[in-house]
Design brief:
This protein has a 5-stranded mixed sheet, covered by helices on one side. With 429 residues, the chain is of the alpha+beta class. Helix 2 runs antiparallel to helix 3, helix 4 packs antiparallel against helix 5 and helix 7 packs antiparallel against helix 8.
Length: 429
Amino acid sequence: MTKEMLWFLMGHLVCIGQWAAFIMVEYAFLGRGRRFRFPCLWAALLAAVFLVASIRHDIGFFNVESVILNVIYLLVTVLFFGGSWNQKLSACLVNGIMCLLTENTVSYTFAWCKHIPVREVWRYRSCLFLLVAAVVGAGLLAAYIIRRWRREQALTPLQMLVMSFFPGIVVVLNIVLMVSGGSEVPSMMNMMLTFGLTIAVLIHLGIVQMVNDQMLLQQTLMVEAVRQKKSAEALLESYKTQRRLTHEFTNHTDALALLLQQGDYEGAKAYLSTLTKTIAANTTIMNTHNPLLDALLSKKYEEASRKGVMVYFDLPDLRDMPMGQTDLVIVLSNLLNNAIEAAAQAAPPEVHVRMKKTEGELVISVRNRVRQNVEIPEGQLPRSTKREPGHGMGLANVCAVLEAHNAEYTLSCRDNWFRFTCAFPTNGI
């Protein structure tokens, strides 16, 4: 094998690095699609086909043909993954910007330091390995940032596409730079231009992140405002209920007084017994020292009573919590909704709620009767449909909160009893 052929093959290592970076970013940005079960595998197979075609037809690299080949590969591989068309286009722009900025910055800097034309940097083995490492490293970093950013994303796909306009211009400028200036020794101006474009894109991404954070804050404030409104409505309803109960209590005391005045002591005892049972069936006193949780649990108790479901509580002092009250409300609301819904279809209709707080963790256990045992394959969430009440609905939201707090959970269903237990680390609280 000649040195020219060896150099030609080594140059394709950069292409392999590029395509590997493309795959990592696309998987992080788009995720799996419905048509292709293993999108990364299909993308890798396509990379092998393109590599063979490039070598066989002597396409080479750092030229117009190689750029076209990379663009085609990028446009085809996004079809293997999921996401909308706007998201696919955004992923293409991210990949194009990432690779072009990385390659141009490394090659122009290397050429300027060696005082050689940009096209000649490909003849240096050290530059090739440096380019491969830079592109793969940029791909890993971009995939990590995208995966983390997607969990806190507030921008719509259309907004993301609009904000990708400036980076798209940068892509065009980098292509022009790469194709037109490769035969000359780069000047200080050209090298600074490549650095300037890279810095400009990084600043742009920082601005996008700031806009995203502001939108997240606005969404959080809106959710909090809605929650406060619902809390106020609940307090007003509680006040109305209290006034009604006070009025009813006055009527009951008047009736008891009348029976006692008439000397009907047996009638008074029977009336008092009936009244006690009615009050016990329609009211419950929560005293966890957490007003929001007390209100929530009382509300769920009343909802369960209306459906004929008995709920038994074993609760500690919940003044200090290892998580925000909003997250705890999400967990308890969804668990109790599922438990009450399933218990209403079973006999006897019972739900048991137990919370235990230690120095190391807060354990929440919700156990309820079910009409029939629910299949739980390998500890996964049970599937639920609208036709058959179960525990799949809402549990996904619960598990999202658990994951955010590094909490563990277990599921079991035996002898017509369904149990969901989770443990939150308290961090010394």
